[in-house]
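Section 5: illustrative case.
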């Protein structure tokens, strides 16, 4: 099993390295569906759907879009993207069976670097979950100065995965309100751009 996970990890690194060389990002389209409906494959597909929506929700954002706020004391678009980035790390850490360290501040990235890292976090999580045979091993673990708290993966579904999807929708609405709607050819049902 360790050999398999090590091989899978190096495969992910190779794919990410190739993406960096080609300057391409994951999720311009949803990958082919798996043949079998396993629990891990279903979770991976949920993450792929999130990645596709996030990719197109954030494609072509401008600085003025990032500063847009709905005016009701809600988060700005930039703050919403920061939150999604944090959620993508929680999702990835659950896939990797790692804790989320709340004793340090999250890494601050420039908008394009943050977009890339969010998409890479989701892709890495998708690959790992697709290979998982027991979702019960993927607890959501938080480490803080008060100790360690662990939640079952059920909370990962209704928590960070669905929360990130919710916020990706908010990004779409905010950018439309800011005057920069998403590409009208995005087809979330088929997971690609319409011709």
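Designed sequence:
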């Amino acid at each position: 099993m360790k050999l398999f996970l090590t091989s899978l990890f190096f495969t992910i690194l190779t794919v990410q390295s190739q993406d960096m060389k080609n300057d391409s990002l994951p999720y311009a389209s949803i990958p082919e569906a798996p043949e079998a409906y396993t629990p891990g494959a279903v979770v991976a597909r949920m993450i792929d759907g999130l990645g596709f929506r996030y990719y197109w929700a954030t494609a072509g954002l401008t600085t003025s879009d990032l500063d847009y706020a709905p005016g009701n004391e809600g988060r700005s678009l930039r703050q919403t993207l920061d939150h999604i980035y944090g959620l993508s790390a929680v999702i990835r850490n659950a896939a990797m069976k790692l804790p989320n360290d709340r004793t340090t501040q999250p890494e601050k990235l420039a908008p394009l670097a943050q977009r890339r890292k969010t998409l890479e976090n989701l892709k890495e999580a998708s690959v790992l979950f697709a290979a998982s045979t027991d979702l019960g091993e993927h607890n959501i673990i938080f480490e803080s100065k008060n100790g360690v708290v662990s939640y079952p993966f059920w909370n990962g579904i209704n928590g960070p995965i669905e929360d990130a999807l919710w916020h990706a929708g908010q990004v779409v609405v905010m950018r439309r309100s800011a005057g920069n709607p998403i590409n009208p050819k995005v087809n979330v049902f088929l997971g690609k751009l319409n011709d």
